[in-house]
Amino acid sequence: MEVWLWALCGLFALIILLLILKLYLMRKSADEICKAVTDRLAAESNVLIDISSRDSRMRRLADALNLQLRRLRSERNRYQQGDTELKESVTNISHDLRTPLTAICGYLDLLSQEALPEQARRYLGFIKNRTTAMKQLTAELFRYSIVRSTETEQPEQLTLNRVLEESLASYYAAMCQKQITPVISIPEQPVRRYLEPTALTRIFENILSNVLKYSDGDLSVIMDSDGKISFSNKAAGLTPVLTGQLFNRFYTVETGRNSTGLGLSIAKLLTERMGGQITAKYQDETLSIQVWFPA
User: Fold this and answer.
1) Is the CB of residue 253 less than 8 Å from the CB of residue 238?
2) What is the radius of gyration, based on Cα positions, of the chain?
3) Histidine kinase domain location, by residue (predicted)?
4) What domains does the chain contain, in order, with CATH numbers?
5) 0.70 exceeded by the pTM?
6) CA 155, CA 194: separation in Å to the nearest integer?
7) Of 34, 150, 186, 269, which is most buried with the most CB atoms under 10 A?
């Protein structure tokens, strides 16, 4: 009786060990599949998932995932090809439009020098404004497509204080023309970040250009020691809902009817590409755009 009991216990122990081994191998296979899927999604690789387990169910799971990875790779390639073709088309179209629009502007300038009736001169002014707006739009389209398609620059150690001061100085004449006296607060202690020089300058310039479109005559630029920069101005024509759409491509509001709607979109694209954050909020009829590049 005792022999049969010990034999039965031994059998149970063997079965438990086999189950533990089976469970270990399945967990190992699951970990291998999980790691392989993560690696394949992180890198554009043609290598398929391969596991060490001989278990038929786990291998069927790996085969099913390989099938989905092939489909995902195919869709990704189609998207990238279409995206590339779209960027090239936008670049070519905007480039081709600039030449005739420049010629049209030239002929309109010549026409404005002729003796015209008051009504015809008024209509000519409308045509010139719309042609200038189209010219600006094609130029922004060209810049936007270039920003989207070009490779990133090599980051350099920049002093945010200095770049911000240079950008403000470059817009001094435009601010004076709009009778804007900015209130500026920039710390004396240098705030340094590793960023792309051209991209950072473009971000500041696009934000300041937006201020000139929407400001009611004021501007406040405040930078703290952590590198957070806030551009604030009164903008009675905006609402919180409209403010939430300022970063959308081609979106404009009535007070910015001569704008293309691409300036802040480009600023957002460049900021996020360099690991920064850009937000906009509207409170008490004041628009605030904040830019921050974490250390």
Assistant:
1) yes
2) 30
3) 92-295
4) 1-150 (no CATH), 156-292 (3.30.565.10)
5) no
6) 5
7) 269
